[in-house]
Write a structure and sequence with these properties.
- The chain is built from 9 helices and 17 strands.
- By secondary structure, it is α/β, with parallel strands linked by helices.
- Helix 1 (about 15-20) packs across helix 8 (about 285-295), helix 6 crosses helix 7 (about 165-180) and helix 7 (about 165-180) crosses helix 9.
- The two termini are about 30 Å apart.
């Protein structure tokens, strides 16, 4: 039984607490939060869980094997670092850190202590993403031309980090998972409307060595909630709508066929579209299960520290591009994606 503590009971913390409490191989031992009201809410829902407002209580506890860091992004590095230094396995919410130097430190520290370090890239565990990836690998879409993702909503506006650092880790991790390769170049443009220097809307482009591109649109200043991934291939296209209650992934049978003679217009073929049968498993439950399993077995989780570091490196290059008015930035990394 892996004994777990959760630090942070704000936006995402309640979901993590619920899933660790329900996981049969973990025991939720303690929770930490600075807010008395939030601690009271934990106590009401989980009366057997120890409560504290001091993070050091979790670090020094002998009956805690792992700590989950679900606090504001700028605290991730220091809190995860302290947990690793105290011999705790760590699951830290995205992003892993706010720059690649700090993220690399966490990876190196975890490796040196033979501890599990995992980042909350929850969509890597989404049955819809997994099903879409299998369709791509099976050649259903043909050669992949490009991807487009949208993660837009009205709110949750933040003032300490921009919309890209807050939201894009999910989309970047999805793109990497679907294409199975690392981009060679990153560019981005964004604008700050509400808080000076904090971009509310961002357009990112990832360019891959094999010619594909992925465009990522991020905004917390938009009239509608949109969580969408479009994949365009040479044979078919796919649309993944995470907001849809059912039929989340549709394979669209459309393709542009060049004329046999090499001259004249392309033939636009349209066939019958269909939806993929997606299991109803909760992605976060699978993420929590992977974290607990990796601690028990010593195997790397899917969303391991290197995966978190690579996403941070991409976001860092995108931030540099934004700061340089959209100038494309080469991605300098020695990381590769885990083989499937």
């Amino acid at each position: 039984m892996i004994r777990v503590a959760v630090a942070g009971f704000g936006y995402w913390g309640p979901n993590l607490v619920r899933n660790f409490n329900q996981n049969p191989d973990s025991q939720l031992v303690a929770c930490c939060d600075l807010s008395p009201e939030r601690r009271a809410a934990i106590g009401d829902a989980y009366p057997d869980v120890r409560l504290t407002d001091q993070y050091s209580d979790l670090l020094n506890a002998k009956d805690i094997d792992a700590i989950v860091v679900a606090t504001p992004a700028r605290t991730h590095f220091e809190m995860a670092k302290q947990a690793l230094l105290h011999g705790k396995h760590v699951l830290v919410e995205k992003p892993l850190a706010m720059n690649s130097r700090e993220a690399e430190q966490l990876v190196e520290l975890a490796n040196s202590k033979s501890l599990t370090l995992m980042v909350g890239h929850t969509f890597l565990y989404s049955p819809a993403v997994c099903s879409l990836k299998k369709a791509i690998q099976d050649g259903v879409l043909g050669d992949i031309y490009y991807l487009q993702t949208q993660r837009r909503n009205f709110g949750r506006v933040q003032t300490d980090i921009n919309a890209m650092w807050s939201l894009a880790p999910h989309d970047v991790s999805i793109v990497l998972e679907l294409l199975g390769q690392v981009p060679s170049e990153v560019s981005a443009n964004g604008r700050s409307f509400l808080t000076p220097g904090v971009q509310d809307v961002v357009y990112m482009t990832l360019t891959f060595p094999t010619g594909q591109i992925a465009n990522i649109h991020i905004s917390w200043l938009d009239p509608a909630k949109v969580r969408q991934v479009t994949v365009v291939g040479s044979r078919r296209m796919a649309d993944y709508d995470d907001v849809a209650p059912t039929d989340k992934v549709t394979i669209v049978d459309k393709q542009a066929v060049p004329p046999a003679s090499g001259k004249g217009p392309f033939e636009l073929r349209k066939g019958t579209s269909y939806t993929l049968d997606i299991p109803g498993d909760e992605p976060l439950a699978k993420e929590v299960g992977d974290f607990v399993s990796s601690i028990k077995t010593g195997d790397k989780p899917k969303a391991d520290g290197n995966n978190g570091l690579l996403v941070v490196q991409i976001l860092e290059a995108a931030q540099q591009s934004m700061d340089a008015d959209g100038k494309p930035m080469p991605l300098v990394t020695n990381l590769a994606l885990q083989p499937v």
